[in-house]
Amino acid sequence: MNKTYLVTGGAGFIGSNFIIYMLNKYSDVNIINVDFLTYAGNLENLKSVEKNENYKFIKADICDAEKIEEIFNENEIDYVVNFAAESHVDRSIKNPSIFVKTNVEGTLNLLNAAKKNWEEKDGVYKKGVKFLQVSTDEVYGSLGETGYFYETTPLDPHSPYSASKTSADLIAKSYYDTFKFPVNITRCSNNYGPFQFPEKLIPLIITNAISLKNLPVYGDGLQIRDWLYVKDHCKAIDLVINKGKVGEVYNIGGHNEKTNIEIVKIIINKLNKSFDGRINENLIKHVEDRKGHDRRYAIAPDKIKKELSWEPITMFEEGIEKTIEWYLKNDEWLKNVLSNGYLDYYNKMYKNLV
Ligand code: NAD
Ligand code: TYD
């Protein structure tokens, strides 16, 4: 019998990549995509699978207890993969409340609905079910010049975004500790690839560059992120659902640390030739630093490699070329996303820049 996945936030960047990955890989899975279609959700991302008979979309808010319960009652759900979230640190600095609502209350609501539907008797659940909470490496806070985040590293979030994700992560863990509810938690580093909303560093730099706009670099640009191609994250999530030990946390990352300024210069270099040299370092503009800006993230993925034999496949050189090419080829997608209120946001954020 087909396993049924309830994927929340499946119209966003990683969620849509995950749905496409799963439907391409397996012919015997059903996917129900539950997404509220906020500014970050875009059904265009799922065009390639929308007619697949194993795929279904339901527009719903994960905070809507009644609706989520109804979805559980009307479908035989085996797995929940909770991607749905407010995901952008800069927005969380401007408006923290929605982050607590969606990321904390929404996750709690999903946990309650799944628990209610799956629990056969006290602490005993339907066989084989699992709830995967998609968390983030940002729950660990910031590193100095050396060292890595392990699953045992104390949680020390700094932004309202990462604090809300940490709360959700801990609530999911508490459901395992308290109710033996079958949970896994994944903490992945920064993703990049197709369908990422152009408010995040890599797509923002690509889309600004190709419109010959300035390229905003926060502060000195020497902050470090550990970049992973989105498909490798999807592969890890698939492994954790199917093979992860219940109750465990798995870090995901490909040991690909780069400073932000390095990322910006790599993108400039890749685009420079095709744009007759007009895309060059003169476009870089150092702007005011982000408040509470975490300096360095770096994941130790030893556990998932050892226990689940996960390995990233796409190295950065190849991944960034594929990503740039994707944004160049998908100008219609970009135009639609930009006209969808994004430009207002951009102009507010960077009013003195262009
Ligand atoms: P995204 O912002 O691109 O997508 C979020 C999706 O959630 C959107 O489709 C949006 O419509 C939906 N959503 C928002 N509020 C909702 C609600 N109340 N009910 C239902 N749907 C709602 O985010 P992303 O970058 O794809 O990240 C997905 C998940 O992965 C998030 O939980 C994020 O914290 C986590 N994560 C992201 C990264 C990264 O680098 N992007 C890294 C590690 C973990
Ligand atoms: P972002 O893509 O927002 O991811 P996160 O903050 O979750 O790591 O930002 C990645 C890094 O790039 C982060 O250090 C902030 C920096 N940054 C810029 O320098 N300029 C920008 O315009 C943006 C969006 C981010």
What is the secondary structure topology, with strand pairs?
Elements: E1 3-8, H1 13-25, E2 29-35, E3 55-59, H2 65-74, E4 79-82, H3 89-94, H4 97-118, E5 119-121, E6 124-125, E7 130-136, H5 160-179, E8 183-188, E9 191-192, H6 201-210, E10 215-218, E11 224-226, E12 228-229, H7 230-243, E13 249-252, E14 257-259, H8 260-272, E15 284-287, H9 302-308, H10 316-329, H11 331-349
Parallel strand pairs: 1-2, 1-4, 2-3, 4-7, 7-8, 8-13, 9-12, 10-15
Antiparallel strand pairs: 5-6, 11-14
Bound molecules: nicotinamide-adenine-dinucleotide (NAD) and thymidine-5'-diphosphate.
Summed up:
The chain is α/β, with parallel strands linked by helices. The protein has eleven helices and 15 strands.
What brief labels describe this structure?
354 residues; alpha/beta; Rossmann fold; seven-stranded parallel sheet; two-stranded antiparallel sheet; 11 helices; 15 strands; globular; binds nicotinamide-adenine-dinucleotide; binds thymidine-5'-diphosphate
